[in-house]
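Appendix C: a fully annotated inverse folding record. The material below is reproduced so that readers can follow the format used throughout the book. The structure is listed first as tokens, followed by the designed sequence.
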């Protein structure tokens, strides 16, 4: 749960609820490709969409081509704040369960209007009853359930996860609202000296002078549980040498430690 209330100008916005199992949050209405049609249908078929991506002759034509097109996903029951409408059945929204850019207003993007239903009100700052009480062990258990799952850029559902999506989804399972992207996730954590990393902390990675580009979960000294990149799967492993070279910071998730609550 967020530390404070979500503040939204209801004179300019209205609420809606996602009414399909999983839908995409796209950069703009022109982002989808013909191969993405199954996810755009009024009754989206997420599995058929993924199968179609994986059937493409190159990663660039399939999953890798989602880069700069597909920012995140929304799942059934998730509330959104409607900020505008576009032609051809698109709605511009912000997703408050996915804090973004230092704000609780929520991750912005475009979603198919048919995938939403209007709502008079919605729990913007609180997730439904979680599966377990938030703790380091519960977080690690939730994340490990996805070992072997294929990487999906923008994915936050059990059908596909990117690196920050693995962190976000595993915490959401515990009822914790946590940012969607790696940079925002680091900002939400307590900074910890790298040698002091403990299981349940987060490893963050960046090239010199560049923004954070990867996040993984610490499971032991030098061990990482993460969703590496397109074409790979969620894995728990000793930190590979290329990752060691770009390890930049460690963050501690406050919601998993009683002294922060």
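Designed amino acids, in order:
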């Amino acid at each position: 749960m967020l530390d404070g209330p979500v503040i939204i100008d209801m004179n300019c916005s209205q609420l809606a609820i996602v009414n399909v199992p999983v839908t995409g949050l796209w950069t703009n209405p022109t982002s989808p490709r013909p191969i993405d049609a199954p996810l755009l249908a009024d009754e989206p078929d997420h599995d058929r969409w993924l199968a179609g991506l994986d059937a493409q002759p190159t990663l660039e034509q399939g999953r890798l081509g989602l880069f700069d097109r597909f920012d995140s996903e929304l799942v059934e029951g998730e509330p959104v704040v409607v900020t505008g409408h576009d032609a051809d059945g698109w709605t511009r929204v912000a997703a408050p369960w996915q804090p973004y850019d230092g704000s609780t207003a929520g991750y912005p993007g475009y979603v198919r209007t048919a995938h939403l239903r209007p709502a008079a009100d919605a729990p913007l700052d609180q997730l439904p009853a979680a599966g377990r009480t938030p703790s380091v062990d519960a977080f690690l258990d939730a994340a490990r359930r996805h070992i072997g799952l294929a990487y999906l850029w923008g994915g936050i559902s059990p059908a596909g996860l990117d690196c920050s999506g693995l962190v976000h989804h595993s915490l959401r399972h515990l009822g914790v609202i946590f940012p969607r992207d790696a940079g925002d996730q680091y900002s939400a954590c307590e900074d910890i000296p790298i040698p002091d990393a403990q299981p349940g902390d987060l490893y963050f990675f960046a090239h010199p002078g560049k923004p954070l580009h990867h996040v993984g979960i610490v499971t032991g000294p030098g061990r990482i549980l993460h969703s590496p990149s397109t074409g790979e799967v969620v894995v728990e492993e000793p930190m590979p040498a290329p990752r060691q070279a770009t390890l930049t910071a460690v963050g501690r998730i406050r919601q998993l430690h009683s002294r922060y609550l």
